[in-house]
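Let's study today's protein:

:::
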Amino acid sequence: MEGLIFIAVLIALVVLILVKTIVVIPQGEAAIVERLGRYTRTISGGISLLVPFIDRVRAKVDTRERVVSFPPQAVITQDNLTVAIDTVVTFQINEPARAIYGVDNYIVGVEQISVATLRDVVGGMTLEETLTSREVINRRLRGELDAATTKWGLRISRVELKAIDPPPSIQQSMEMQMKADREKRAMILTAEGRRESDIRTAEGEKQAKILAAEGEKHAAILAAEAEREATILRAEGERAARYLEAQGEAKAIQKVNAAIKSAQVTPEVLAYQYLEKLPELAQGEASTMWMIPSQFGDALEDFAKKFAQRDEAGVFRYEPVEVDKRSEDIASADDHEDWFNTQSNPEIAAAVAAANAVANKPVDDEPLQERPKQPEVEQPQAPRNLEAAPGTSAQASSELEANDAE
């Protein structure tokens, strides 16, 4: 019986020695080993062997990066307003031995240093600066914490202000201020929009008036040019018409004279035609009475004695003269082929087409710099194939030639 008890005690002692000798440290943790109360070494993830009953694990430290959120801290700003600020600190333990032996509680130390630094930084700022200077406060807190916790074996990687809560009354005032600012900006933007709209409208009206004036100017210039060209064409047409009419009358007179010569009309025929025309003289509404001079017969007798020859019976007979070759040619000529020609003069048609092209040309956007040059219209020349009428003086012929030259 005693042997069994001894064996059991021995087995228990062996198990206890094994438990005290073998230590398993998880990955991401570190253990502080002391030998007889003195720091010996730091062991990390894996299996480690200790001297039983001499070495012991003082503490285990989490070496992963940790994020710690601290409760809101009341901080007074430069303008004597109390705000509650929540901070979040991200740190990592690089030297576990310093974290155990250098400070009693590194979490509390980080919190207290954060609060002290936060009060120092925010105490020199106004509320508005505090709300708008988060990045400055974060950098300042990180720098102070990193410098203070280096001897504790900590590395501060990031510090963030999670929330900055001013008092409720201040929040209401800020909301009212923001509302007033937004209304002010809205009114300013509305006024700016109206101003810009009025300016644009005025610019548009100005541009429209300028374009309308330019259009009227173009139209007036084109109308003046068209009137000028039309006046020139009408004048040229009237001159050509008068010239052609004069030449036509001359040609008709020449034709009649040649026809009379070639027909060898006698005084009896002329007297008969004269008697036929006498009743027409009395057909006028104002012709109530007409008289024939008593010497009219004597005048005819003298005319017959001068141009006629007296025959054997004592009667004066008119003997027509022989017809010359030129009079016969003029009387028998038939040159009326082009009397009814309705084709326009090519030069006049070209001038009209040019005027229509200028009139249909759109008005440019740019202001008119100079007056557009119109194509010159050649003056229509009077036909020269008509012969001058008999009896036309040399002065009249020279005047017609001068007009043609113009």
